[in-house]
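Reminder to self: tokens first, then the designed residues, so the page reads top to bottom the way the pipeline ran.
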């Protein structure tokens, strides 16, 4: 059985702390057998204060991390000081107990812990949109994406604020056991199995100054046109920039070149179509902008390691 260990740190947010046990604890096989064992621990095995007006009694200490297949760190109360020590010695020692192949998951601002431990260096990651600028300043080596609900970078995964922890935990159930199981968990928890869009729809954005420029509107424009070719010159023209300026600003904002981002978005769009539609592989390839089934197979295999047909069989939602 896959063991999930949840590490409750001082000042933990109760709602986010409860997400892993609710989602993973609800996941069962066709015969009702639990698929995960969830254990909550603190660093010393003692009570933990929360961000609310109550404390929690925790009976396991950090030694529980030795048996973790997946570690989840929920957010906890943090101050405004960017020079804060996000990885005190006791916490660093605890993280060192993890087995080499364990998955590590942060919810919301717990991403600070992962970044302080060097686990996000050079990786894409997210955090609550309201913290993203400070997070990027504090950890410039992290490729921060404030627009998505979560980032799955293989062994290390990060979720945006609050309810995005639900999205990420359901994603892990889907990744581990397929869409049917994840959908069943979502129904029992009365939450959507998949939320369209990212946290960009929740961000409070001030009206930019007339001189301010960003590639954001062009990215949104491109997402509605993934089915057709989108040459770099056309993207730059839409953004009213030179190609050189567009590429530079795009990379600064997204953390990757425009072409790589387009391929990523097309692949994700193709995956959703394979999961939710009856379109043929050729039709999926066309609608996702890959042109041919051969191109779709190549890009999907690079991302998931399987063919479109195998992916559909594993993750078909209906």
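Designed residues (318 positions):
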């Amino acid at each position: 059985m896959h063991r999930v260990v949840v590490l409750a740190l001082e000042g933990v947010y109760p709602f986010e702390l409860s997400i892993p046990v609710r989602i993973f604890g609800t996941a069962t096989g066709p015969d009702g057998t639990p698929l995960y064992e969830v254990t909550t621990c603190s660093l010393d095995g003692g009570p933990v204060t929360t961000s609310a007006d109550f404390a929690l009694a925790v009976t396991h200490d950090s030694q529980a991390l030795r048996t973790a297949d997946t570690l989840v760190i929920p957010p906890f109360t943090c101050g405004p000081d960017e020079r804060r020590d996000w990885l005190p010695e006791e916490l660093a020692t605890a993280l060192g107990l993890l087995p080499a192949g364990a998955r590590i998951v942060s919810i919301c601002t717990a991403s600070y812990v992962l970044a302080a431990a060097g686990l996000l260096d050079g990786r894409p990651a997210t955090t609550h949109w309201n913290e993203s600028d400070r997070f990027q300043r504090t950890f410039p080596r992290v490729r921060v994406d404030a627009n998505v609900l979560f980032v799955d970078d293989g062994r290390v995964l990060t979720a945006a604020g609050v309810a995005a922890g639900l999205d990420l935990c359901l994603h892990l159930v889907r990744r581990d056991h397929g869409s049917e199981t994840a959908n069943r968990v979502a129904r029992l928890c009365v939450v959507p199995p998949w939320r369209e869009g990212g946290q960009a729809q929740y961000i409070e954005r001030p009206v930019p100054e007339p001189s301010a420029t960003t590639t954001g509107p062009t990215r949104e424009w491109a997402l509605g046109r993934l089915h057709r070719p989108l040459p770099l010159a056309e993207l730059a023209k839409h953004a009213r920039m030179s190609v050189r300026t567009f590429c530079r600003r795009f990379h600064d904002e997204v953390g990757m070149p425009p072409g790589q981002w387009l391929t990523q978005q097309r692949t994700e769009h193709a995956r959703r179509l394979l999961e939710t539609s009856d379109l043929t592989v050729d039709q999926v390839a066309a609608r996702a902008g890959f042109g041919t089934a051969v191109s779709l197979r190549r890009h999907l295999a690079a991302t998931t390691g399987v063919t479109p047909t195998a992916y559909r069989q594993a993750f078909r939602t209906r």
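The longest helix spans residues 258-276.
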